[in-house]
Amino acid sequence: MQTAQRAQQSKENFIGSQAQGYGTPTASGLYDSHIEVSGNFKTACQQMLAWIKEKSLLREQIISISANETTTVDGDAMLVLVYKRHANPSMIGSLDQLQYHLVSSIKDWDSQYKESIAPIASDRCDIVSLTHTAKNIG
Question: Is the pTM of this model over 0.90?
Fold first, then answer.
């Protein structure tokens, strides 16, 4: 099966399992989620950034972005965004400059922080999400 087809199937299976197990994200309708699935995390990140910018989400609307995989071995990359559906006047954080940075999954958190996060944190950037998934372990 081609990567795009596997990704779509994984996305549909994930959404279906969530709907069967949990119903809608919230009864109030205040929150929603968006899922990107791809054969690799670089493409999934690019797709997620494009979607966030297309929807003009603001910083304060983002609740979480998590990385997952569809299976432990040879699984597709999956990003799950949970966000507030509606902005309010107090929300001013533009995500026009939102970027992602991928680091090797074989490094521990301390090493990743020292090499990747500490240098940009000193530039007073606003870190939206840190997430990790262990590829091919298990």
Answer: no
- Considering Cα of 27, then 58, then 54, then 83, what sign does the dihedral take? negative
Q: How far apart are CA 41 and CA 53, in angstroms?
A: 18
- pLDDT means per 10 residues in the chain (138 residues)? 60 52 56 91 92 92 88 83 89 82 70 72 68 56
Q: At which residue do the structure tokens 């779509």 appear?
A: 8
Largest separation between any pair of C-alpha atoms in the chain? 47
- The answer to whether 6 touches 41, Cβ cutoff 8 Å, is no
- Tokens encoding 34: 């968006």
* Cα angle: 17, vertex 36, 98; to 5 degrees: 140
d(CA 40, CA 8): 13
Rounded distance between C-alpha atoms, residue 92 and residue 59, angstroms: 7
Q: Which SS3 state, helix, strand or coil, does residue 96 take?
A: coil
Q: Where in the chain are the domains?
A: 3-121
